[in-house]
Amino acid sequence: MLRKRIIFTLIYENGFFNQSRNFRLQKVGGIDWLEKNYKFKEISIALDELVVLNVARGEKNMFEFSKTLEKIVEDVFIPISAGGGIRSIEDAELLFNSGADKIVINTILVEDNDLVTRLVKKFGSQSIVASVDYRCDEVFINNGTVKVDKNLEDHLENVELLGVGEIYLNSIDKDGTGFGYDLKTVAKVIEKIKAPLIIAGGAGNEAHLAQGLNIDCINAVATANLFNFIGDSLVKSRERLLNDRYSLAFWDIEAASELKNSLINKKL
C-alpha cells in the first residue's frame, strides 16, 4: 500500500512568505524571519514534502526566487516541489538546479499545452505537479485572477491527458479559512481522474488533515496555514495520526534530527 503524505505549502512573493486567505496575501516575513519564528527546519521533519509557490503578481523574478529556494533546501531534507511563473524549459531547469525535486505548473496548463508536453517529456511525469485553483465549478489561472473557459471537471480531464504526475487541487473559497477542506467538490471530481491527487485549501487543524486522509483516492493533504501549524503542532499531529493507524510513513524524529545536525556540522 502506498503511504499517504502530509505536505506544507509556502506562499512566496518578492522576498516575503505570506499567509493567504481566498488568495488575498498578508506578508509574514522573509526566510530568516520564518526560520527564527517558526523553526521551519525543525517542523519540516514531520512532513513528507514541501511545496514552495511563487505567487508574485505580474512578471516574476525567477532568478531571485531560485536563490530563495536554494536557501530553503540547504537543511530541509524532504522532497521539495517549486513553481509559479514557469514559462519555459529554462525556468524549469533553473528551479531543478536550485534544489527542486518537482516543479509545479498552473497557467501553462491552459495557455501553453505544448510546453507542458515538452516538460513532461524532458523531466518525466513524476516531476510535474499540476496546480488547479478553483472556486465552485470554475477554474482560475494567473494567481486566481483569470477565469478559464472550462468547468472544473473538464479542465481536470484535460490536465490529466497532458501526462502530469500529480494534481494539486486548491479551493480558493476555502484557502486560509481554517474551516476544513472542500470535500464536497473533491467527491464530485475524484471519480473523473486517475492521477494522484493532493487537496489543499482550508486545513486548520489535525482533524481536517485526518478527514482528507480518510478518503481512499486522496494521496496527500496540504496546508499553508502558518499560524495554526507552528511550533511542534505538526510533529504532534503526525504522531497522533500514526497512533490512529493512518497510512503515513513513520519518521524517527529523533534520528532524523541527529542526522540533520550531523550534516550541518560537516558543512561547518
Give unreliable regions as ranges. Answer: 263-268
User: What is CATH's topology name?
Assistant: TIM Barrel
Biggest sheet strand line-up: 1-4-5-6-7-10-11-12
Number of domains: 1
What would your notes on this structure say?
The protein is an alpha/beta fold. 37% of the residues lie in helices and 26% in strands. It has one domain (5-267): TIM Barrel (Alpha-Beta Barrel). Strand 2 and strand 3 (24-29) form a beta hairpin. It is globular and about 45 Å long.
List the helices and strands and how they pair.
Elements: E1 5-13, E2 16-21, E3 24-29, H1 31-38, H2 40-43, E4 49-54, H3 62-73, E5 80-83, H4 89-97, E6 102-105, H5 108-111, H6 113-123, E7 128-135, E8 138-141, E9 146-151, H7 152-161, E10 166-171, H8 183-189, E11 197-200, H9 206-213, E12 218-223, H10 233-243, H11 253-267
Structure summary:
By secondary structure, the protein is an alpha/beta fold. It is built from eleven helices and twelve strands.
Question: Which terms would index this structure?
Answer:
268 residues; alpha/beta; TIM Barrel; 11 helices; 12 strands
